[in-house]
Amino acid sequence: MEPGHFGVQLEEGDVRTSCRVRVTDGFVDDLLLNDVDRERIVKESVGFLLERVPATDIPQELSLDEIHRDFPEYYEELRARLEVA
User: What interhelical angle do 38-50 and 74-81 show, nearest 10?
Assistant: First the structure.
């Protein structure tokens, strides 16, 4: 994939789906996550979503900076999951 994009395979029971996740430089900068591996940011973000919605409800194209619209607690919880002060 091109820079800033990650392919994620989601599995829930016998249902498998995939998602293309975008991580923008602005997102990383705004949350002060420059020292965190972007793949880890994606894994924790997808884990956050899967705790709240079924895998089939996660869009096929997802930009991490959009999650906050539906889940205002996302930024704070992501930083906690990544252990960023």
Answer: 120
